């Protein structure tokens, strides 16, 4: 059972149910660690770790079609804290930017009135974090400031835009998926709209290729795949519009860039996924489903590894990982044919029916090892990817190479004895995909990994409407110790759901009836009666089910015993105020009166009994007077017994108390109090009937009120009786003053009226066909009102009071809402809620608290123990503490979902490790030059692109060109490949390609001469200067690419880079520097690029810092972090540098300076901090004095003290 506390003040909340078809695309998993999902016009915020809904945002009037969390790619401090910002777009074209914690809207944006097609926050510039790009149908792209709601620019395109995707490596590139094809934009910037209309590329629908019709022979699967892809390329990407026959229908479901490697894009079709290389715009990989397979509906590419999460139509999620090209030597001639994505894991499918189908999947952007599946019936299934070691049992012919675990974790190599695989994220579970020409790491310290999906959480919603709801009896002073605010909801399939409104969680689901539940009444705090009627037979008779349900045990029994078959349907059931009696009203049959305590039928009315249209029990009864009489009788008896025994010393009152306590249990059973009810007949006459024990008396009759129509419902509390009729009139009777007052509401049929609980609380809730109102019966005036179509877009199915000041409404959009009395549908503040499980989400905290927590988790001296056991890594040896600092920062940024922190520390920890190893190498082999990049077992993942080591980056580019070469299908492709090969310095292969040009091609002569030139280039002085002159002229006259090629031919790549940078081709220059220049020359080019990135008009300082990190310019990074006021990051970075010993050179120079000034003590201190190089200086300092002074021996203490002062 859920542990509960009594919360008298319940939070307003919404219990949601099934989704609308328009909500299909409205789901997003943010860096902050929460999932947002649209449900009709509201937005649920869920915590995937504890599987509970923590907020429901209500402000949209139409169905929500898109939601997007803002990215966390910026530095967090008090002025830009961790916050939960969410943008949502609805079917009427409105965009709302939310502050999710308080449930309020930052701003509302409206441009057109059609559904928003796509939304994305811009994450890649430091200027502003508030920029939101939206697609407004049919063909507009608008950039908004998401904080103020102002429009920055708007641009229209020729075709209807379906969605867009940003290039994760270059923010100025984006692709639009339109109804006819793809539009590539290369000049996107936040300051002004794109000037050009973009480059259009048409897609012809991939036709059913032979691979689908006949099964491919098992022996050689790869060549058929490659041929198939080649066939497809010819129809796939063309610059001219294809003829009408060729285009059947553009059934491309999705387009997105691959975040794991640059310039690759993915197109999703129902039966295949195509991987395009954008430099050649052609297919380099195909993932096809065989004929019997289940089609795709969505695919999410991963960043950390070259892997795809695919969602299929049966709700099955599969993970496909790119096959290593250098894995098997025997398959080498096939393996280069194309990129192959192997199925590595899949989860269970769901049962798909007409109403239950999978909508969307989202994956955790921080760790990429958890997926959530949204199902149309409101369920959210949370799957987690788990890795375990073990050999795979695959047949060798399938070509599946084993998956291995990574060699290192957070930059620190893993020892062979570490058996547990870190399940923290995707890149700590499986190692990188190897590329051709790369030696696989020694298998001694790698373990084979098997992946499997585990269902770790499930959220479920309400079933389909209609509902009948009833709140349990109200809180009183007597039941406060064990009260639970339970709401029972009867559903159309016969089950009753009981919700605990303190937490909003499902308390119990009971399958009570076999047909739709029509109504519920509670008979105590833990039991209720519910009734259901089957559909009528041809005589209009039904099967009535009236069940008594006991909640703690779940026992239910038929309250009317064998009765109930073939009789008129039950209209309503009413329980008396003391829960003694029950009236059951039928449609065409006199009512029945039951005793609830004994379960006996007291009276079945005679046939002549009038037809009941409305009925209500009176709140007055004679229980108190009965109890008084009983007490008096007992007291008299007690006095007599005392006087008989002459024990006058004992006070009689004490005895009466004792006896009272004894008899309390009996009295409550024995007393049958008198209660009354009133009802109206079809003429509007009011009858009054008294019930006492098993006697039923007919009382006074009041003639009908002429102004009222047929009475539909009655409510009675205290001295006020209210009648509502089918024409929308309310009649208020004051029984004490004997006054009546009729008020026409002009709202049509009064469906239900209910008084609020609580002594003296005379508020009344009225339900109409088109909404509801709250009335104050003392003043006889309306307090608040809601109406379908005016201020809400849902119809109300049932109403009740939830506490004395909150109402609960069931509506036809499948939700149950708890609202304030004003009935404004409002989101609630997250901090007002009682959640059963604590939620870890720093963004929910006050800005100051979140940063304090972060500082507390970071700033504990690492040499000591670490409290709040976050890392769960027990380091024994002193050496490994170096790795701990970066690892902590890594895991902490994941914990906080801080994107910019994570990027920074991933790159920093990698290069700190690298340069520290290099230093140790250069110190050991004294002659080694500082510049050589050390051979490292692990590279930075290729998803970091230009930030990777040059050697690895070159291999990757060669591998890619090799693949492009196999795939080329036209002269343009061949030309591009040759150009690429020349730049990469692969002259022989380039010449072969140039000589392939056919004689009837206009550039035949040109290419042949170029081939001759490339083969005959010698490094003689004159030819070099001539070529350089020609190249410079070409560049000056606008032939930049050709000039750069010539410069690369004569090994003047550094000049080429400089020219590229002068002409603004910064990315190209960086690429060239990485593949052609020595680290020393390359670092100049990249440093210039970093300066350019820092310039105010580009404003990408955070990217510049990453570039400088990859060059090992650690001082500069420290300075920049400090100048950008990133104080905590700067301090920790400098400390990390000290720990890994890459800043010791500075200490050494300072020590020498101090020695030259004659300050030997100071020089000794700084030399002691400069590691092995400083030891020589120490020896020089203290040669004549026999050893080192004590001041230096306490070095550890000094070091700790100094670091804290830095």
TrEMBL record:
Record-linked InterPro entries: Beta-prop_WDR11_1st, Beta-prop_WDR11_2nd, Quinoprotein_ADH-like_sf, TPR_WDR11, WD40/YVTN_repeat-like_dom_sf, WD40_repeat_dom_sf, WD40_rpt, WDR11
Chain ranges of the WDR11 second beta-propeller domain: 484-823
Domain of life, source organism: Eukaryota
Annotated ranges, domain WDR11 TPR: 951-1138
One GO term (biological process): cilium assembly
One of the Pfam families matching this protein, by short name: TPR_WDR11
GO cellular component labels: axoneme; cytoplasmic vesicle; Golgi apparatus; nucleus
Residue ranges annotated for the WDR11 first beta-propeller domain, each copy included: 22-318
Keyword list, A-Z: Cell projection, Cytoplasm, Cytoplasmic vesicle, Cytoskeleton, Golgi apparatus, Nucleus, Phosphoprotein, Repeat, WD repeat
Principal subcellular localisation of the protein: cytoplasm
SMART domains from the UniProt entry: WD40
Compartments it resides in: Cytoplasm, Cytoskeleton, Cilium axoneme; Cytoplasm, Cytoskeleton, Cilium basal body; Cytoplasmic vesicle; Golgi apparatus, trans-Golgi network
Designated name of the protein: WD repeat-containing protein 11
Organism of origin: Poecilia latipinna (sailfin molly)
């Amino acid at each position: 059972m859920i542990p509960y506390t009594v919360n008298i003040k319940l939070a307003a909340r919404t219990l949601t149910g099934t989704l609308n078809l328009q909500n299909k695309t409205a789901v997003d998993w943010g860096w902050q660690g929460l999932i947002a999902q649209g449900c009709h016009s509201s937005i649920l915020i869920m915590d995937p770790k504890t599987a509970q809904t923590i907020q429901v945002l209500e402000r949209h009037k139409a169905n929500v079609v898109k939601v997007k969390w803002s990215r966390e790619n910026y530095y967090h401090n008090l002025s830009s804290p961790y916050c939960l910002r969410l943008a949502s777009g609805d079917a009427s074209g409105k965009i709302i930017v939310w502050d999710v914690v308080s449930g309020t809207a930052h701003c509302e944006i409206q441009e057109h009135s059609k559904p928003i097609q796509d939304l994305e926050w811009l994450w890649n510039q430091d200027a502003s974090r508030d920029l939101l790009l939206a697609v407004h149908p049919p063909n507009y792209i608008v950039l908004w400031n998401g904080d103020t709601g102002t429009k920055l620019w708007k641009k229209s395109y020729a075709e209807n835009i379906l969605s867009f995707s940003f290039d994760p490596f270059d923010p100025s590139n984006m692709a639009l998926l339109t109804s006819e094809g793809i539009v590539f934009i290369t000049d996107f910037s936040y300051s002004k709209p794109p000037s050009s209309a973009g480059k259009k590329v048409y897609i012809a629908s991939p036709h059913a290729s032979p691979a689908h019709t006949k099964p491919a022979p098992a022996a050689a699967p790869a060549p058929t795949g490659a041929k198939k892809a080649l066939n497809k390329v010819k129809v796939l990407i063309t610059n001219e519009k294809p003829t009408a026959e060729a285009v059947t229908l553009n059934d491309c479901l999705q387009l997105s860039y691959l975040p794991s490697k640059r310039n690759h894009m993915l197109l999703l079709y129902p039966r295949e996924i195509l991987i395009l290389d954008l430099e050649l715009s052609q297919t380099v990989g195909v993932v096809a489903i065989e004929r019997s397979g289940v089609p795709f509906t969505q695919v999410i590419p991963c960043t950390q590894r070259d892997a795809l999460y695919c969602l299929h139509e049966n709700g099955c999620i599969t993970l496909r990982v790119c096959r290593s090209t250098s894995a098997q030597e025997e398959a080498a001639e096939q393996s280069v044919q194309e990129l192959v994505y192997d199925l590595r894991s899949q989860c269970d499918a769901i049962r798909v029916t007409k109403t239950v189908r999978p909508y969307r999947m989202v994956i955790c952007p921080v760790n990429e090892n958890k997926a959530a599946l949204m199902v149309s019936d409101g369920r959210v299934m949370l799957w987690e990817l788990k890795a375990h070691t073990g050999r795979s049992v695959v047949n060798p012919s399938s070509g599946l190479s084993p998956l291995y675990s990574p060699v290192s974790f957070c930059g620190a190599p893993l020892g062979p004895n570490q058996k547990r695989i870190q399940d923290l994220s995707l890149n700590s579970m499986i190692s990188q995909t190897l590329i051709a020409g790369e030696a696989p790491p020694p298998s001694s310290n790698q373990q084979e990994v098997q992946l499997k999906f585990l269902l770790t959480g499930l959220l479920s919603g309400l079933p389909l409407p209609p509902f009948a709801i009833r709140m349990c009896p109200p809180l009183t002073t007597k039941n406060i110790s064990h009260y639970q605010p339970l709401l029972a909801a009867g559903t159309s399939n016969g089950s009753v759901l009981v919700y605990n409104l303190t937490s909003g969680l499902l308390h119990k689901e009971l399958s009570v009836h076999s047909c739709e539940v029509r109504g519920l009444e509670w008979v105590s705090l833990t039991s209720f009666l519910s009734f259901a009627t089957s559909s009528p037979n041809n005589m209009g008779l039904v099967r009535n089910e009236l069940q008594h349900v006991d909640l703690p045990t779940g026992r239910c029994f038929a309250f009317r015993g064998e009765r109930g078959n073939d009789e008129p349907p039950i209209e309503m059931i009413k329980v008396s105020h003391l829960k003694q009696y029950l009236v059951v009203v039928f449609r065409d049959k006199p009512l029945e009166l039951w005793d609830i305590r004994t379960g006996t039928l007291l009276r079945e009315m005679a046939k002549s009994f009038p037809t009941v249209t409305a009925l209500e029990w009176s709140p007055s009864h004679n229980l108190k007077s009965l109890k008084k009489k009983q007490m008096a009788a007992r007291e008299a008896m007690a006095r007599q017994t005392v006087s008989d025994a002459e024990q006058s010393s004992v006070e009689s009152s004490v005895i009466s108390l004792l006896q009272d306590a004894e008899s309390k249990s009996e009295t409550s059973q024995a007393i049958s109090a008198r209660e009354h009810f009133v009802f109206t007949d079809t003429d509007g006459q009011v009858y009054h009937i008294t019930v006492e024990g098993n006697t039923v008396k007919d009382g006074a009759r009041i003639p009908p009120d002429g102004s009222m129509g047929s009475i539909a419902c009655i409510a009675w509390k205290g001295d006020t009786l209210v009648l509502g009729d089918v024409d929308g009139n309310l009649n208020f009777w004051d029984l004490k003053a004997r006054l009546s007052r009729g008020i026409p509401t002009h709202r049509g049929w009064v469906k239900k009226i209910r008084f609020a609980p609580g002594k003296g609380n005379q508020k009344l809730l009225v339900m109409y066909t088109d909404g509801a109102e709250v009335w104050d019966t003392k003043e006889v005036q309306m307090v608040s009102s809601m109406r379908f179509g005016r201020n809400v877009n849902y119809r109300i199915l049932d109403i009740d009071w939830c506490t004395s000041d909150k109402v609960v409404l069931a509506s036809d959009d499948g939700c149950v809402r708890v609202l304030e009395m004003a009935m404004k549908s409002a989101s609630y503040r997250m901090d007002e809620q009682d959640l059963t499980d604590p939620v870890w989400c720093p963004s929910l905290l006050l800005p100051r608290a979140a940063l304090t927590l972060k500082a507390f988790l970071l700033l504990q001296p690492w040499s000591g123990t670490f409290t709040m056991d976050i890392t769960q890594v027990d380091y024994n040896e002193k050496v490994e503490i170096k790795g701990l600092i970066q690892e902590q920062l890594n895991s902490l940024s994941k914990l906080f979902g801080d994107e910019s922190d994570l990027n920074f520390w991933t790159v920093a920890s990698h290069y700190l490790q690298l340069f520290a190893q290099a230093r140790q190498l250069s110190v050991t082999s004294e002659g080694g030059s500082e510049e050589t990049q050390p051979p490292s077992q692990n590279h930075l993942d290729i998803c970091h692109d230009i930030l990777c080591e040059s050697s690895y980056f070159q291999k990757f580019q060669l591998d890619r060109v090799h693949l492009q070469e196999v795939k080329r299908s036209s002269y343009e492709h061949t030309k591009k490949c040759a150009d690429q090969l020349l730049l990469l310095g692969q002259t022989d292969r380039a010449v072969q390609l140039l000589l392939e040009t056919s004689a009837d091609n206009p550039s035949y002569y040109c290419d042949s001469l170029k081939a001759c030139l490339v083969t005959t280039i010698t490094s003689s002085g004159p030819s070099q200067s001539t070529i350089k002159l020609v190249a410079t002229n070409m560049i000056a006259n606008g032939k930049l690419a050709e000039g750069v090629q010539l410069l690369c031919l004569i090994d003047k790549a550094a000049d080429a880079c400089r020219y590229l940078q002068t002409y603004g081709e910064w990315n190209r220059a960086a690429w060239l520097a990485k593949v052609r220049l020595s680290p020393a020359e390359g670092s100049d080019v990249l440093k210039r690029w970093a300066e350019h990135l820092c310039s105010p008009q580009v404003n990408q300082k955070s990217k510049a810092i990453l570039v400088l990190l990859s060059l090992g310019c650690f001082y500069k990074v420290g300075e920049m972090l400090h100048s950008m006021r990133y104080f905590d990051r700067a301090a920790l970075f400098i400390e990390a540098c000290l720990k890994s010993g890459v800043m010791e050179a500075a200490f050494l120079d300072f020590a020498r300076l101090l020695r030259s000034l004659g300050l030997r003590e100071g020089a000794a201190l700084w030399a002691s901090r400069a590691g092995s190089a400083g030891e020589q200086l120490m020896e020089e300092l203290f040669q004549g004095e026999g050893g080192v002074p004590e001041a230096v021996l306490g070095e550890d203490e000094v070091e700790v003290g100094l670091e804290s002062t830095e």
